[in-house]
């Protein structure tokens, strides 16, 4: 995925208003994800960091359904995470990273998870963050999501992904160049 020029990473006033309305509705509907937090505080933080709204918009456009999942009392920062029931539709059919993409000679996918996340300004979930998300609901019952892979595993050509089956969260491995219609990635953004 090509990086979007910086000047394009700003939302119009109408796009901001639509995004805020969508995020507020999701926030209010899913209070179990952020008990004790107030939407007005979240919105205030977003308005103070408008550059982060572009990334949230990208998460929304790729059907990630971002929502607040954590708050840091020390810094006042909120963490948004993709909370779509299944791995975001707009981010599937991607191998793990650029190296894996470049290694595919036959039938390469259009993009890789690591590069897509970077272009969107978000971070691929770690295994720990993925497991924390699963404490807030049941995600990836039919799909799976790439997660950050340790360097030693990646150096051997592998990459890691997670899903939820049989009411348990599983961590698996696959070749980093593999890609499937049911595997995407989830990201997070701290604002």
Description:
The chain has 191 residues and is α+β, with helices and mostly antiparallel strands. The protein is 35% helix and 22% strand. It has helices at 13-29, 39-48, 50-61, 98-103, 113-120, 127-134, 151-155, and strands at residues 66-72, 77-82, 123-124, 144-147, 158-165, 168-175, 183-185, 187-190. The chain has a four-stranded antiparallel beta sheet. It has a four-stranded mixed beta sheet with strand order 6-5-4-7. Strand 5 and strand 6 form a beta hairpin. The longest helix is centred in the N-terminal third of the chain and has 17 residues, at 13-29. The radius of gyration is 17 Å and the shape is globular. The protein starts with 12 loop residues before the first helix and ends with a strand.
Task: Provide a compact summary of the structure.
With 191 residues, this protein is α+β, with helices and mostly antiparallel strands. It has helices at 13-29, 39-48, 50-61, 98-103, 113-120, 127-134, 151-155, and strands spanning 66-72, 77-82, 123-124, 144-147, 158-165, 168-175, 183-185, 187-190.
Q: What is the terminal separation in angstroms?
A: 24 Å
**How many strands, what sense, and barrel or not for the largest sheet?**
4 strands, antiparallel
User: In which order are the strands of the major sheet placed?
Assistant: 1-2-8-3
- Shape designation: globular
**Count of DSSP strands:** 8
**C-alpha-based Rg, rounded:** 17 Å
Q: What percent of the residues sit in helical stretches (DSSP H or I)?
A: 25-40%
Say what oligomer this is: single chain
The residue ranges in which pLDDT falls below 50 over 5 or more consecutive positions are 1-7
Sequence of secondary-structure elements: HHHEEHHEHEHEEEE
Provide the structure class: alpha+beta
């Amino acid at each position: 995925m090509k990086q979007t020029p910086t000047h394009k990473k700003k939302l119009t006033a109408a796009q901001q208003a639509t995004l805020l309305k969508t995020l507020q509705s999701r926030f209010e509907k899913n209070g179990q994800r952020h008990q004790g937090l107030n939407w007005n505080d979240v919105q205030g933080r977003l308005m103070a960091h408008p550059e982060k709204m572009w990334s949230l918009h990208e998460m929304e456009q790729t059907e990630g359904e971002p929502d607040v999942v954590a708050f840091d009392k020390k810094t006042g920062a909120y963490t948004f995470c993709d909370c779509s029931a299944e791995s975001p539709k707009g981010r599937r059919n991607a191998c793990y990273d650029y190296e894996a993409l470049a290694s595919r000679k036959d039938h390469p996918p259009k993009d890789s998870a690591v590069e897509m996340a970077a272009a969107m300004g978000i971070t691929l979930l770690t295994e720990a963050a993925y497991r924390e998300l699963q404490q807030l609901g049941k995600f990836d019952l039919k799909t799976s999501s790439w997660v950050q892979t340790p360097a030693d595993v990646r150096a051997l050509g592998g990459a890691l992904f997670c899903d939820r089956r049989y009411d348990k969260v599983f961590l698996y491995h696959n070749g980093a160049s593999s890609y499937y219609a049911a595997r995407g990635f989830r990201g997070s953004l701290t604002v």
